[in-house]
Amino acid sequence: MKKTVYSLCFMCSVRCPIQVQVENGQVQWVQGNPHVAGIDGSLCPKGAAGMALLYDEQRLQTPLIRDGERGSGKWRSAAWDEALDYVAERLKTITATHGGRSLALFERTNLSTHVSKTFLKALGSPNHFTHDALCKGSVNTACRSLFGYTDAEMGIQYDKTRHIVLYGRNIFEAVAVKEVNNLMTALGNGAKMTYIDPRVTVTATKAGRYWMIRPGTDLALNYALMHVILKERLYDAAFVQRWVSGLKDLQDFVRPCTPEWAEAETGIAADQIVALAREVSRDKPSVIFHFGYRGAHHADEIYLRRSILILNVLMGSIEAPGGLFFKKGPGAAGGKGARKLTEQKLPKVEAARADGVGGKDFPLPDAAHGVPQALIDAILTEQPYAVKALIINRFDALKSIPDTNRTKEAFKKLDLIVSIDVNFSDSAWYADVVLPESTYFERTDCIQQANGLKPQMFLRPAAIPPVHNTRESAIILRQLAERLGIEQYFPYTSMEDLVAWQLEGTGFTLADFQARGFVAYCKDQIFWDRNDGLKIKTPSGKIELRSSLLEEAGYPSFPPYVPVERPQGDRFRLVVGRVAAHTHVSTQNNPYLSELFPENKLWINDQRAKALGIKDGQNVRVASGVGEGTLKAFVTELIHPDTVFMVHGFGHEAKIAMRCYAKGASDSVLQASITDKVGGSPALHDTFVTVQPAKATAPVEAPSRGRKRKERVN
Ligand SMILES: Nc1nc2c(c(=O)[nH]1)N[C@H]1C(S)=C(S)[C@@H](COP(=O)(O)OP(=O)(O)OC[C@H]3O[C@@H](n4cnc5c(=O)[nH]c(N)nc54)[C@H](O)[C@@H]3O)O[C@H]1N2
Ligand SMILES: Nc1nc2c(c(=O)[nH]1)N[C@H]1C(S)=C(S)[C@@H](COP(=O)(O)OP(=O)(O)OC[C@H]3O[C@@H](n4cnc5c(=O)[nH]c(N)nc54)[C@H](O)[C@@H]3O)O[C@H]1N2
Ligand code: SF4
Ligand SMILES: [Mo]
After folding, report:
1. Looking at the structure, do residues 163 and 312 belong to the same domain, yes or no?
2. Measured on CA atoms in the order 429, 432, 438, 444, is the torsion positive or negative?
3. I want to staple 355 with a disulfide (CB 3.0 to 4.6 A). Which of 114, 209, 242, 374 is the partner?
4. What is the pLDDT of residue 466?
């Protein structure tokens, strides 16, 4: 029997709409959903490798309970009832001793996040964490400081842009299919693209203008761009006059930031900076200064992200075609959104968050997401209180939080670690219980509310029944809830029940999704009137260049620029990023993708490599103050001399994931845990490392290892 199912990819969390062909209960073919504009049948390489995950014999297949030391790889298979009873009993004991707040849950935001938030609240815990801060928490805070909206409530209209400026937004390798297709449409129509990155990426090769900036100095560049734009009155005066407060303060602040000053810091010629300012202003307001996707780089990240957003504001690109827009929800089209379990009347949680977010020392990061790296401190110090149980769902804490050795120490303080995953992640490897989730082909998920210029809802229905003994995370949590006496907050027994409950009152039913995979609330794009209709949510109702959010919390809106270090000798700034063939830390063991890109290498500048005696392809030892690793060198003139680069996600420890075990090196082992205390992101690019030919460093067994390593780090 053949059938076509419209669903959502989940090889990464972009969730592109897909069309799945099924024959006799087997998935035969996957492609992008041809009914969705901007997708038009296309998939990225990872999406195309989805079937390889589904039928991979090395993925998780049944619940496992640890049967040896943590990390020893000794497991016994368990029936679902046994595994769930085991977790529930342990949770009861831990919460009876330490309170509900001693349970924390980490997850990559997903369609069932409202289920896990409900689970924690019902148990009295405030400690729900998403990946948000690790990815772009400071972007989130920067958006709130200017507009009163989070970054997730803002969007970018690529297809109509006239000029896009990308700061390390490596859009043609760190892919979201619709964005790429829409940007290609704009480029095909003659739009310009400026790309700024210390490394020549695929995106750099497609740009009309490419600048190899000295890493960490983009903020100086932006202050100089603002200097020129304000001095030459290149900004959208009518827009700024109507919607912006604090222009005078900005003018005073950037007056000394001349293009010549920025040239000395960034390495970008002053006349080129002036040329870009003039060029974009000719295309305003259909101009995009991309505010970033991943904005977790530096300890002052929030100020870089604010500066990028301010450049958009000066161009008047807010709510303009081909610029930035505020996402419209169902309400804007007279409709109603899908319900979430968190909208029920739930017990009030009295405890403060363990990561301190929302408290006086950490007031601004988004408490709806938390700051995962700060939870690691809380677990280690048991301050402000003991956290003793951790559920990790669709997230790999050991590889996705900087300083893996520190996270491992924190794990030792925990009485229970549960991993819900599809793969043997490193966190699963170090867990006590592993609960396997059904893959996206095998499960129905909660509704995706897709807000934007045209609000829509998408559905991920199961294309086939589970191949192995796996379940959906929302069902796993419901079944734990039954055992913990909180089942009243989970009014469903199957995913179809839950989706039907979500759809109540929306006017749509499950059947409405069958024909195309989505439903739309309206036909036309909704833009607010730029003369009078913007609904800015700051206290003043204006776009606040001088931010009341920041200043009331005791932080300046315009702190002085701090010049960045110029590392010499064997010392480099470590920067990391993605590659088109992999998702973060989750696809390295995929049968197809592991062949396409089997290991990461260290990009190192050819001149600096020569001085250190490092040759292309040779193993190099990389060490920071917190960890070390060995990988092959990629010697190239395509990277700035101050920097070395590695693709994130390699150096896996779980031995059952045999195709990727010990391949390449892990960036999170090397990265120190440094945080932007204002915005909330970790500073993933503020770690300096030393690089040596591998054989020149002391072998692991050598007695002098400790002393030598210390010398190298200093
Ligand atoms: N050191 C370092 N840390 C980083 C980054 C970095 O570049 N370097 N990048 C940051 C960024 S931008 C982000 S977004 C985060 C991402 O951090 P993570 O969310 O941890 O990374 P992913 O690789 O997306 O997925 C993590 C886990 O989800 C599992 N998974 C995949 N599909 C499913 C599923 O259907 N169900 C379940 N239950 N599990 C599933 C995977 O097997 C994997 O173990 O990491 C951040 N942390
Ligand atoms: N294939 C693939 N696509 C993905 C993902 C994935 O895992 N795989 N993940 C998705 C997610 S969650 C995210 S957050 C996005 C991330 O999307 P991006 O942020 O576009 O991706 P990264 O690869 O992290 O890009 C980091 C780039 O910044 C550059 N860089 C480093 N230092 C500096 C600097 O000082 N200045 C400038 N201007 N550039 C610098 C690096 O050299 C690198 O090329 O990708 C999304 N798309
Ligand atoms: S970007 Fe690729 S992997 Fe991610 S959801 Fe889309 S098709 Fe799937
Ligand atoms: Mo991300």
Report:
1. yes
2. negative
3. 374
4. 98
Query: pLDDT per residue over 571-630, tens digit each?
Result: 999 999 999 999 999 999 999 999 999 999 999 999 999 999 999 999 999 999 999 999
- Looking from the CA of residue 46, the nearest atom of ligand 3 is 3
> Residue 15's domain is classified under what CATH number?
2.20.25.90
Instruction: Determine the Cα–Cα distance for residues 3 and 5; give it in Å rounded to an integer.
Output: 7
Tell which atom from ligand 2 comes closest to the C-alpha of 292: 19
Report the residue among 9, 170, 645 best suited for mutation to probe ligand 2: largest number of ligand atoms under 8 A from its CB.
170
Alpha helices for 1-77 (secondary structure H): 45-48, 50-54
- pTM for the predicted model, two decimal places: 0.96
Taking the C-alpha atoms of residue 477 and residue 460, their distance in angstroms, rounded to an integer, is 19
Sign of the C-alpha dihedral computed for residues 363, 369, 375 and 376 taken in this order: negative
Domain count, the chain: 3
Its domain, for residue 284, covers: 158-322
Which residues line ligand 1 at a C-beta cut-off of 6 Å?
10, 108, 131, 134-135, 294, 393-396, 400, 402, 420-423, 425, 437, 439-440, 473, 576, 583-586, 648, 667-668, 671, 684
Query: How many Cβ atoms are within 10 Å of 523's Cβ, its own excluded?
Result: 7
Parallel/antiparallel/unpaired status of strands 688-693 and 619-623: antiparallel
Q: What pLDDT, on a 0 to 100 scale, did the predictor assign at position 695?
A: 72
Q: Which of 43, 109, 181 to mutate to test the pocket of ligand 3 (most atoms within 8 A of CB)?
A: 43
The answer to whether residue 617 sits within a structural domain is yes
| Rg, Å, the chain Cα set | 25
**580 CB less than 6 Å from ligand 3?**
no
Asked whether residue 688 is assigned to any structural domain, the reply reads yes
Calculate how far, in angstroms, residue 464's C-alpha sits from the geometric centre of ligand 3: 20
Distance, in Å, from the CA atom of 82 to the CA atom of 433, rounded to the nearest integer, reads: 11
Question: Which is the closest atom of ligand 1 to the Cα of 420?
Answer: 38
For the chain, the residue count is 714
Q: Are 434 and 476 in contact (CB under 8 A)?
A: no
Longest C-alpha distance within the chain, in Å? 72
Has residue 660 got a pLDDT over 90?
Answer: yes
Whether the pLDDT of residue 701 is over 50: the answer is: no
* Predicted pLDDT at 703: 35
Q: What is the pLDDT of residues 3-41, one digit of tens each?
A: 999 999 999 999 999 999 999 999 999 999 999 999 999
Closest C-alpha among 582, 573, 571 to residue 652: 582
Ligand 3 pocket, 12 CB below 6 A?
yes
Q: Is the pLDDT of residue 699 over 80?
A: no
